[in-house]
Each structure stands twice: as structure tokens, then as C-alpha cells.
Design a protein that fits this description.
6-stranded parallel β-sheet; alpha/beta; 333 residues; elongated; 6 strands; 48% helix
């Protein structure tokens, strides 16, 4: 009889800890396959990322092991996802398969809260991943407890997931608000949002790729309030040390995006890298430069440059650069 392990969760996003659990469970249980089952809406969580995004991130890691599969069964229903309903449906569709259900040992104390838990215990074999320091009656999968969590990835304190997932996070602007709020003051965060709004307005006006513009705008001040910019530059970008300190945050933001998040869109990276002085003239860079210098909360009227840029992006960009050089004296704020 075919033996399959079911592994449910929010996977928001899936990370290396999940993958380690899955691989160890497959090997120790000698199972044929492991099926990831992302929740539609967990009864115990709110504000989860859309199901489609979480499903697609799981799909990106299936190539790690040919025994991995993913089911979208819970994405086809509305409302909270209950394990008992999912298990009964899967067993009905696959009556000739033996199923385990993998959980972490941190779930043990909450199992009694699961819907129809006594029935669920009779329907499926729970297996528990952990270190044997929590008492339970289920088969144990012994393994390392990795210091990684989805919540740390969502606030930008960890990148412990696959390169493809990291790149997907950037390309779809997932978690950017929590990442920025975790790094920036309210003042700076609100500046970034205003820059993003104006950049998207300009981009839409000129039929540019709005998602790429959004990435550039949201990331441009990622490192603005980082107190260790010089140390980062010394370690990773020593060729930039001769630039004024006011440029460092732009260099670091672009480098973090490429080095840590595996994002390699050169026009977007250039836009971020050169947004302080407007040294790049690709269209995304022009839009970001204008939006950054002209966002509505600036203490001077920049509407004429915005209006000019809507008529002629290049001309608006050039006139704004000239204005900055003549009257702002390189404040580079």
C-alpha cells in the first residue's frame, strides 16, 4: 500500500525548517510521498497572505525532492480550514493510500482544540517532529529544531528559505509593509508609501511596468535608517567608500535586494542604486528619482516637475535634476 505523509499549515511563507521536517519525516517513516497542504484560512490565524501566493511558493520548492507534492484542496473552499474535513475528503478520494499527518511538537498542547479531534485521531496517524522533550503518544520524528520561522521572514529578519521563494517574495511585493515597518520610523515609512504612490501614478501615465516600479519604490529607502551602513559598505561594497555617506543607503538597499533576496532585475536595482543623484536614466530610475524628490510631503512645491514629467518623462527628469543641482546643493535627502 502506498504510504503518504500529509503536512498542513499556513506556509506563509514555506521555509527551510518546513523542508527539513518534511525530508526527515519521509526518510524516518519510509514514506513514498509527502503532500503539502496549505490552509485556505487557518482557524487560529488572521491576515494570512493570499492562498494563491502561498501555493505558488510551495510549488517553487517541489523540485528539491521528487517525493514532494502539493494539494490545493483547501484553496477551493471558503472560510476556515479544518483538518478533519480535509483528511476525510482526501481519504475518500484515495482509499488505497495509508496516510500520516505531520505536526511539530509545538502543536501538541493545542491538538484538543482541533475540530472533532477524537474522530481525527481515528482517521489518521499523527507523527510528531521534535526533540523528545514534549511528552506525547505519537510516533516521533527526531530532528534539528532550526532557528527559522515564517514570521521572521515576514518582518525581514530571516531569509531562510529557497532562493526561488525569496525572489518570488520580492517580485510580488509580499511582506514589504511589515519588513519596512520593522526597519523604519513612521516618518520614513510614510515617505516610502508616498513615493510609491507617486511612482505608480507616473508609471501608469507612461504605460510602464507597475510591479517593477513598485519594487523599486518600496525598496529605495530600505536601509535609510540603518546605523551600520558604513560597516556594510566596508564588508560588501568597498568600491563605494569614496562616495558621500548620503549615498550609502541606496547602495546597501540594492545590494541586499540582490545578495540576500536573489533579485537580479538590473533596471530595478539601478533605479534604487542611483536614486539619490539620478545617475541612471532607465525609465524606472527616472520615475523613482522624480517620485522621491517630488513626493507630496516635501517642504517645497514640486508640482511643476510632476506635471512636466507626465507630459514628457525625460524632460521632467532632466529639469528636476537641474533644479536639484542648482538649488538644493546636493542635500540628497
Amino acid at each position: 500500500m502506498k504510504h503518504v505523509i500529509l503536512f498542513g499549515g499556513s506556509f506563509d511563507p514555506i521555509h527551510n525548517g518546513h523542508l527539513n521536517m518534511a525530508l526527515r519525516a519521509l526518510d524516518e517513516r519510509k514514506a513514498d510521498e509527502l503532500w503539502f497542504i496549505p490552509n485556505q484560512v487557518s482557524p487560529f490565524k488572521s491576515d494570512v497572505t493570499p492562498f494563491k501566493n502561498r501555493l505558488e511558493m510551495i510549488e517553487l520548492v517541489l523540485g528539491i525532492d521528487s517525493r514532494f507534492k502539493v494539494l490545493d484542496i483547501e484553496g477551493k473552499q471558503e472560510g476556515p480550514s479544518y483538518t478533519i474535513d480535509t483528511v476525510l475528503s482526501i481519504k475518500k478520494d484515495h482509499p488505497d493510500i495509508k496516510f500520516d499527518f505531520l505536526i511539530g511538537d509545538d502543536h501538541i498542547e493545542f491538538l484538543e482544540q482541533w475540530k472533532n479531534f477524537k474522530q481525527l485521531e481515528k482517521e489518521i496517524q499523527f507523527i510528531v517532529y521534535g526533540r523528545n522533550d514534549i511528552e506525547h503518544k505519537y510516533p516521533q520524528i527526531n530532528g534539528e529544531i532550526m532557528n527559522v520561522s515564517s514570521s521572521k521572514i515576514r518582518i525581514g529578519e530571516s531569509t531562510e528559505t529557497s532562493s526561488d521563494v525569496l525572489r518570488y517574495i520580492v517580485e510580488h511585493s509580499l511582506y514589504m509593509h511589515t519588513i519596512l515597518q520593522n526597519r523604519l520610523s513612521t516618518y520614513r515609512y510614510e515617505h516610502v508609501l508616498r513615493v510609491c504612490d507617486l511612482a505608480l501614478e507616473l508609471g501608469k501615465h507612461h504605460n510602464l511596468d507597475l510591479q517593477r516600479i513598485k519594487i523599486a519604490a518600496l525598496w529605495h529607502d530600505y536601509a535609510k535608517e540603518d546605523k551600520n551602513l558604513k560597516e556594510y559598505i566596508q564588508k560588501y561594497l568597498p568600491e563605494c567608500l569614496d562616495y558621500p555617506d548620503a549615498f550609502y543607503h541606496a547602495f546597501v538597499a540594492a545590494d541586499v535586494l540582490e545578495r540576500r533576496y536573489k533579485f537580479h532585475d538590473q533596471e530595478v536595482l539601478e533605479a534604487i542604486y542611483y536614486h539619490v543623484d539620478g545617475a541612471s536614466d532607465n525609465d524606472i530610475a527616472k520615475v523613482l528619482y522624480i517620485a522621491d524628490k517630488c513626493e507630496p510631503n516635501r517642504p517645497f512645491d514640486t508640482s511643476k516637475f510632476v506635471n512636466l514629467a507626465k507630459q514628457d518623462l525625460n524632460l521632467g527628469f532632466q529639469e528636476l535634476k537641474k533644479n536639484q543641482e542648482e538649488y538644493l546643493g546636493g542635500s540628497n535627502e
